[in-house]
Amino acid sequence: MTSLTVRQANTEDIASILRIYNQGIEDRIATLETETKDYAYMEAWFHDHQGRYSILVAESEGKVTGWASLNPYSHRCAYNGVADLSVYIDRSFRGQGVGSSLLQSLHKVAKENSFYKIVLFTFPFNQGGQGLYMKMGYRQVGVFEKQGVMDGQFMDVMIMEKIL
Q1: pTM of the entire structure?
Q2: CA 77/CA 122 separation, integer angstroms
Q3: Are 4 and 58 in contact, with CB atoms under 8 Å apart?
Q4: Rounded CA gap, 9 and 140, in Å?
Q5: Per-residue pLDDT tens over the stretch 33-82
Q6: What residues pair up with 86 in beta bridges, in sequence order?
Q7: From CA 97, how far away is CA 139, in angstroms rounded?
């Protein structure tokens, strides 16, 4: 892969963010969501992620190769400094450093927006994701057993965290 740029997402990126998110849904390795989303859904999600809850995209040769976002963790004010994390990489760019670049930039943005901790939820079988998160300083906190249902099967969800 040639040079990679990480930048704040803009409205022109919504279609690419949607395409990559739907890949994650279809691949069944990154989310409990099972129904792919449409443009209206992603546009509303995008507009809810302004201000502190940033969305970053990674771009190579003019193509969005991945995205990451800071999401609200809880509505309770005691958790105001804690963000939830989402990161999705285009299938053809996984394992090429896109996730590391996105997380490195997102950690900086999180600190600038007064977050002191990031949490994430991943599947215990998602070895690629866990490798990325551990490389970037996250630690496993525990596993929620039977946290959700996907395709008629109970799914465990691993919790990981990073203190910034």
Answers
A1: 0.94
A2: 25
A3: yes
A4: 29
A5: 999 999 999 999 999 998 899 999 999 999 999 999 999 999 999 999 99
A6: 69
A7: 19
Q: Residue written as tokens 């995205």?
A: 67
- Which pair of structure tokens corresponds to residue 164? 């910034």
- Virtual torsion, Cα 93, 97, 115, 159, nearest 10 deg: 70
Report d(CA 87, CA 51) in Å as an integer: 18
State the amino acid at position 72 in one-letter form.
Answer: P
- Mean pLDDT (whole number) for 150-163: 97
- Cα angle 5, 7, 8 (rounded to 5 degrees) comes to 165
Helix and strand totals (H; E) in the chain: 4, 7
Amino acid identity at 17: I
Question: Domain residue spans in the chain?
Answer: 5-115
Average pLDDT, the chain: 96
The DSSP line for 130-154 is: HHHHHHTT-EEEEEEEEEEEETTEE
What CATH code is assigned to 5-115?
3.40.630.30
